[in-house]
Amino acid sequence: MTYMKDFTIKDVQDVYDGPGGLLWEAVMGEQIHSGGPEATDALAQKVGLKKGMIVCDICSALGAPARHLASKYGVTVKGVDATKTMLEKARQRTKEAKLEDFIEYYEGNAMDLPFKKDTFDVVWGQEAWCYVTDKNRLIQEARRVLKPGGKIAFTDWIITGDIPEKELDPLLETMAFPYMESFQGYQGLLKQNGFKLIEALDQTEEYAKCFDEYYEKVHVDLKPTILDNFGKDLFDFASNLVTIWQKAAHEHKVGRGLFIGQK
Length: 263
Ligand SMILES: C[S@@+](CC[C@H](N)C(=O)[O-])C[C@H]1O[C@@H](n2cnc3c(N)ncnc32)[C@H](O)[C@@H]1O
Known about the structure:
Blueprint: H1 9-17, H2 19-28, H3 36-47, E1 54-58, H4 64-73, E2 76-81, H5 84-96, E3 103-107, E4 120-126, H6 135-145, E5 146-159, H7 165-175, H8 183-192, E6 196-202, H9 204-221, H10 223-230, H11 232-250, E7 254-262
Parallel strand pairs: 1-2, 1-4, 2-3, 4-5
Antiparallel strand pairs: 5-7, 6-7
């Protein structure tokens, strides 16, 4: 039985419309995922991105991965995100980068994509689907909008080991995650929704090292900025968050998974 918490899309919007969005960018960078642009390149190479392909980035946030993919690989990207602040910043930064002919952003929900069937060569996601309340529905939507033969490529925060509910609960609580899929769980979802599974990688070791960096950043480099701009409560919240996630990642209870499937 999957352990679930009662977080909805409104909770996620509150995080990313508020200081949470700024904090995550300060800690992880404009590409809000562990491993930064290198992780984006690794996924792009694995899925075989080629000039002219059309990519759907589900949960596109600030649009930094979309800009990276458009400028480096010559693809066009349609990003979908549910949070207005993220969409505004993504559009502004894309205009500044003069990439608006290659990238469009849509306000929408990952579980009900605003696109026709058979539209995309690649459906893409980096470390955001953990916020989605029904990942089966998300995978079905991804398949619907992919062209026949198109590929889904994503990374996500996942459960990678045995973790009791009392340890999982505070992890989900700090992140506003309704639940996390497991490494096996995502592979099952892909297969049961008709994808051919091409690759599934447990990248927890790399992910745990990223948390060492985030722990350091929050407690040293960013500490004065967080305290000055957001106050002690947010600093204490961020400090607890990185501490418990770093520990659980090093214990290989939670981590990052990379998945590639084909329609
Ligand atoms: C960690 S950030 C995404 C990072 C982004 N993929 C990147 O690599 O830069 C999470 C984003 O997911 C979006 N999000 C979460 N749940 C969503 C949903 N159900 N539908 C659309 N967007 C969602 C949030 O608004 C937020 O911008």
